[in-house]
TrEMBL record:
Cross-referenced PANTHER family: MUREIN HYDROLASE ACTIVATOR ENVC (PTHR21666:SF270), PEPTIDASE-RELATED (PTHR21666)
Sequence segments annotated as region (Disordered): 257-277
Domain M23ase beta-sheet core: 161-232
Protein name per UniProt: M23 family metallopeptidase
Listed transmembrane segments: 9-24
CDD domains tied to this protein: M23_peptidase (cd12797)
Domain of life of the organism encoding this protein: Bacteria
Keyword Ion transport: no
A matching Pfam family: Peptidase_M23
Keywords in alphabetical order: Membrane, Transmembrane, Transmembrane helix
Length: 277
């Protein structure tokens, strides 16, 4: 019961906001009800966030890089923890943007255009790969790929839209997504996938390196990219984040085991790339 209440914190917050906005009687029952619902929604959200703080001392799980080619790391745990937030098990999540040498992405503009079509970005349609053997336990594929937010008005829209999305269900933030239960017991989450690109379904068993879907621009995202994270369970509202480690090569050819820092351009280690062929 309490778990269900915590997971629906956004509904209480939204209901409280509506009560206050439509209230025209000043300090009265409707206003007080709105304040109470806002406080309840905020308290439930804080409690859920607190419960999703991962335990200390977790050993990173070795997985394969879930993409092929040259990518750039952003908002990753090598730079700060939590990399995103503890909510939705995002403590150790990372964002990956495709940066091939042969193609560049559109530059952001100050005011116009408001946004660009996702097809303008190299990441859109790039294959998303299984980082290990496992079974698909959750999938969503019907959300649209919206315009990339490439201007200041677009970024403002993104933050307002992100707040509204955060009041809903996880799929409103994740967009089209997959959750893969890895054989070692952790769960890999993939968000912002391209609509209609999923090549697996719930219950499918996959091998490391198999193409699962394509990178898209669905959910709470500013431009096409892959959001990747490991979790302790299949439900992102109840699980906690799990640290992971990759084998990768940077632009100077140096080999690493770990997670690339923000801004690092990298590709999968040669042995991992061979498994993806």
């Amino acid at each position: 019961m309490l778990t269900s209440l915590r997971k629906r914190h956004g509904l209480y917050f939204a209901a409280g906001a509506v009560c206050i906005v439509v209230n025209s009687q000043g300090l009265g029952p409707l206003w007080y009800a709105g304040v109470l619902l806002l406080a309840l929604g905020g308290l439930l959200r804080w409690d859920l966030w607190r419960r999703q703080r991962p335990p200390q001392g977790q050993e990173p799980v070795q997985v394969a890089v879930p993409v092929a080619g040259r990518w750039q790391a952003l908002n990753g745990p090598a730079t700060k923890i939590p990399s995103h937030t503890h909510s939705h098990a995002q403590t150790y999540a990372i964002d990956l943007i495709h940066r091939p040498h042969a193609r560049t992405a559109p530059e952001p503009r100050r005011l116009w255009p408001f946004g660009r079509r996702p097809e303008s970005y190299p990441a859109f349609g790039a294959p998303v790969l299984a980082p290990g053997d496992g079974v698909i336990v959750a999938a969503g594929h019907r959300q649209r790929d919206h315009l990339a937010r490439t201007s200041l008005p677009g970024i403002v829209h993104l933050y307002l839209e992100g707040f509204v999305r955060s009041l809903g269900w996880p799929r409103h933030l994740w967009g089209n997504h997959l959750v893969l239960k890895l054989d070692q017991g952790t769960y890999a989450g993939f968000a912002h996938l391209k609509r209609g690109s999923l090549r697996v379904a719930v219950g499918d068993r996959v091998r490391s390196g198999r193409t699962l879907a394509e990178c898209g621009n669905s959910g709470n995202t500013s431009e096409p990219h892959l959001h990747f994270q490991l979790m302790s369970g299949p439900d992102s509202e109840l699980a906690h984040g799990v640290p992971f480690t990759w084998r990768y090569v940077d632009d100077d050819g140096a080999e690493h085991t770990g997670v690339p820092e923000d801004g690092t351009h990298f590709s999968a280690h040669a042995t991992e790339a061979q498994r993806q062929v």
